[in-house]
Every structure is written in structure tokens, then in C-alpha cells.
Amino acid sequence: MSAVSSPAAMPAGTARPRGRLRALIKRGLRSVLIALAALSLLGAIYEAFAERADRRAYPAPGQMVDVGGRNIHMLISGAATGSPTIILEAGVPGPYVVVGHSYGGLVVRAFADLYPDDVVGMALVGASHPDQWAEVPIPGAATLSGLFNRAQGALAGIGVVRLLGWNQILSAGLPAQQAGELEAALARPDAANLAGYADLLNAQQAELAALSSNSLRLVVDGATHESLVNEAGYARVVADGILRVVEAAETGEPLPGG
């Protein structure tokens, strides 16, 4: 014996509202995507014109020179003349006391490693530690930092960083001209803004000072990573520390206060 049955009939009008809802959702999503694309295009146009205006308002004070196939901006003051490619060819006789702030600390350490006979002193100002991100106690911190920088670069490319004034935090304390130059540079899509962790960074700064048997570590109360070089009062303390290194290099005596 067999039985044949047919599907239960759906209540009239049930399928049609569901289909209408799906269609409304699709139209809504499509409208949002179109609006985002239009805003992104407008933002990119705005950013392009703003960068063009920045280049006119804040022309680079130095010169672009070719270093191994790369154009690098250099500003040399004092008695140096000519078209240098690296500091050794800048017309400034050695030996040198090199100074690096933030990522620049890694650069001057690399320079001292390449030219040890030409470097007699070093001042690291809130310098990056080689293991800065490897030691952050957060899984994948370096990857997250990279993703953050890429996201910021993308937002800068469509003018969001400039419109929201995120770059003004880093330029606080600088004279108007220098603040404008820094804000213009940081608003570009290729700018990076890395955050750190105070306790870890303080410990790493102590490690950097311990690399030399003739060293002095200065902690500037109240200063931030940026205000060390932006704000005049803090910058004077930094300059005094650099002059101590120069004095020790000239006299051959241990660092005063070290």
C-alpha cells in the first residue's frame, strides 16, 4: 500500500513579504556601498589637492639626493657644502656624535656599526628598541601594529586622517611652521604612527643605556615620546644631554653625572 501526499500549502502572502524584505536589504547594502565608494573618491580627490597645497606651503628646506638609487631628503647646516650622499661625504669632518629619536635610534646604531671608527658618541632620544614589538606581551602585537598602520594609511589616502586632525596630537608644542610641516607629512598615506607600552619601553630604554660602559640615562619628567623634541622646555633637556655626550667625546672623560 502506498500513499501519495502533497506539500502543505503555505499561507497566502507569506513568501512575498520575505522576498520583498530580501530585496530591500540588497538595495540598502548596494546604496551603502555606492555611498562609501563615492565618499572615498571625494576623499581621495580632497587628499590629492591638500597634499599639493602642502608641497607649496611647506617646501622641503634641504635637498633630495640619490643614495643607492633612492631619493633621500637631507638638510645640512653650518659649514657643509656640496651635494652629499651620506654624512661621511657631507663636508663635515669626523668623528661624529650621532643622535637618533624614535626609529632614528635604530638608524644611528646601524651607522655606528658600519662606521665604528667615525663615531665617538651617541645620544638615543626615546629610541626604538630592536625587540620593541617582539617583547610586547600581546600575541601578534607586531602583526596588529602592521595592520593598524596599513589601515591608517588607507584612511589617510581618502583624507580621513587630515579631516579628523589625528596628526595634530604629534605636532603639539612645535612652532607654527614646523607644526604645519609635520602635520602635512603625517597626513600622507605613507606615514606611520606606532603606539607603545610605557613599562616595556622604559625597561628597554634602560637596556639601551646599558649597552655602553660610559653612559647616562636621563628621564624627562612629564615628557611624552613626541614632546621630547616638540616642546621647547623638554627639548632643552634633550639638547643638554646631547651636549654632555659631545663634551665627554671631546675631553675623553666619563659622562658628567653618569
Q: Quick summary of this structure?
A:
With 258 residues, the chain is mostly helical.
Task: Describe this protein with a few key phrases.
258 residues; mainly alpha; 4 strands
Structural overview:
The chain has a domain at 60-93. Residues 1-6, 80-86 and 191-196 have low confidence and may be disordered. The strands form 2 sheets. A two-stranded antiparallel sheet has the order 1-2. It has a two-stranded parallel ribbon with strand order 3-4. The longest helix is centred in the N-terminal third of the chain and has 43 residues, at 15-57. It is mainly alpha-helical and 258 residues long. It has 9 helices and 4 strands. The chain has helices at residues 15-57, 104-114, 141-157, 160-164, 168-171, 176-186, 198-209, 227-230, 232-251, and strands at 63-67, 70-74, 96-101, 119-125.
